[in-house]
Amino acid sequence: MTNQSFLHKVFCDISLEKDPDLWQNDEDTEEKNIERIRFISEFSETLYKVQLDKDRSSNRKNSDLCRAMKEKGNKSYGSGDNLTSLTQYNQALMYSSKKEDTALILANRSALWFDLGEHDLVEKDIDLAMRLGYPDNLVFKLHERRAKSRFAMEKIEEAKEDIKLAQKYLELSKLDELKKKKKFNEFDVVLNKLKNSKERNSSKLLKDGNPSPEHILPKLASNKKFPAFSDAVKIKFEAGRGRFAVSARDIEVGELIAVENAFVALIDKEFSKTHCWHCLICCKRPIPCDRCSGVIFCSDDCKEISTSSYHKYECMFTDILYQANLGAWRLAFRALTSYPWSYFQENLDVFLGRNELQGLEGEAVYSSQDILNFHSLVTHDGSANKKAPELMMQAHVVVFLIRVLRVAEYFGSGESAELKLSEDEINAARILHHFMRAAFYNTHEITQVEKTGPGFDENHVQRIGRVTNPTLALINHSCDPNYRRVSTSTRTFGFACKPIRKGEEISDIYCKPFSSSDIQERQKSLQKYNFTCNCTSCQRNWPTLPDLPTQLNDLPSQLYKIPVNKINNQIKRIQRCEENLKKILKQKDYSVKSIIDILSSIVDQHYKLLYSPHGSLVYYENQLHQALLHLYSAKVGPKVLQATTISWPL
Description:
Layout: H1 6-14, H2 20-23, H3 30-41, H4 63-78, H5 82-95, H6 99-116, H7 119-131, H8 139-152, H9 156-170, H10 177-195, H11 213-216, E1 233-238, E2 242-247, E3 256-261, E4 264-267, E5 287-288, E6 296-297, H12 300-307, H13 318-323, H14 329-337, H15 341-346, H16 348-351, H17 371-375, H18 388-407, H19 423-441, E7 444-451, E8 459-468, E9 476-477, E10 483-488, E11 491-496, E12 507-508, H20 519-526, H21 536-539, H22 564-586, H23 592-609, H24 615-632, E13 635-641, E14 644-649
Parallel strand pairs: 7-13, 9-12
Antiparallel strand pairs: 1-2, 3-11, 4-8, 5-6, 7-8, 10-11, 13-14
């Protein structure tokens, strides 16, 4: 939490008031934390009446702003500035509070999609505009436009039906009789042309050159106990270490060993108006929330899932929750509100308990979507050397989130203005406090790739949000990891970036790698995770990349894995692989999958020759990661028309 938030200001204002001993107590037990929560809730400042007043919310709908942005969109569209117009129509939709206004804006946006050649989006916007009650006297225009888009998509029968409906609704238009007759005859001509056209083959697949990861991702070999892992991964437990992942068999370089859909996810503030609130993908065609102006969705499905569960408890407060600067603690709030309070009431004993062996006992499958597996993640309760101010701030944040839940009627109708927390609120506070720690120590970044050029390695990786993956969180840290993550939407793929032998621990990375950060910087960065890294690169204090050797010949003998008489032949194998890579890259339309295969071979051949650390190992592992990002990550790129540039999903 930064020093800029309103929460921090209130915290400073009430610090050391009433009970100085408690403010300075660093005992980290559940009993003491409950005492802190009750104590903080007694301050009237923690009601946050101004911040939680729905009538003052910056997330309210606004008809005046809706109308202004629509008019700006019309003006930009009229001048041919389609991308600016798109942005303005999207903003108008977010502020719209009336179905009829939303229908008109969607109809206008469909014209823009038509000009951009996005015919599937023409169809979707027109469908929604009609469902929302687009005026009958104008609807013939939408049927005509949709018919043209369906014809462009070779949906001939549906296009015919649209033309017939356009003729039907033409009678309700305000055109004079002469214009109606002329338009009717034009529709007849179009209809005759459509009768001579052929329907598209419905089995036609995705466009060549733009495959989806779902179609090209290697199949994950089934792990019956931990289905987000492949059968190459085994989870073990040691007292003092907790759960960790090891290889159940030899794992090849580039092998897919994990695919997990996050249990809980949250988009970063700067992407909240361009990316889906639920699945975190960049939205080409954003759909607004019906109640607030703070979020968008990529589809009706994401909107329905979100608004029927967690979003109804944050709907008018998304800006305030961002302004609170809660970091990963926001995920705790999302986790709690993904379930009704009645669920926690029915399972209170379970959620007030702890189980570090979750997934290791019994035959139950460790599901990524089971909240109990999120609940069981490591929290370092009582062992993280937390100072008194941090413990009090955690209690303060819990109280603030309980106030949000109270105003949002999470515990039922009948908003209370009492300072004292009810029994239900205290129990929810205990669960939230635990969830906050689970999220803090077990959060991954979700990223997208901004393409800076056509090459597989021309990638700028952007963090767009946070997620908690209950399965991938079981993988521990190393400053020289043997596994890399790639994400698209809220799904994360895990690939081996080194050969991993049977029984070897599988490692992720929580900070910068040894190659780009010295040991002092890394250890400082890792302090917040409550451990001192003891990986090989830290034990031996490996140098950073500029000081690593890059040549393969004439190295000290201890850097070679093989006898001296075999070194030259192994170097030649590596050089042949490198030559093959150069040949592939010279091809105009090379396959990125072939690049991944050859880079995996190069990394593997290097590890047959060398021990770490070595500059070539670092370089080719990074190149392999770049190729994996290019093929499997969510990607965006610049969309440029006239003088306007926007980020566009690829």
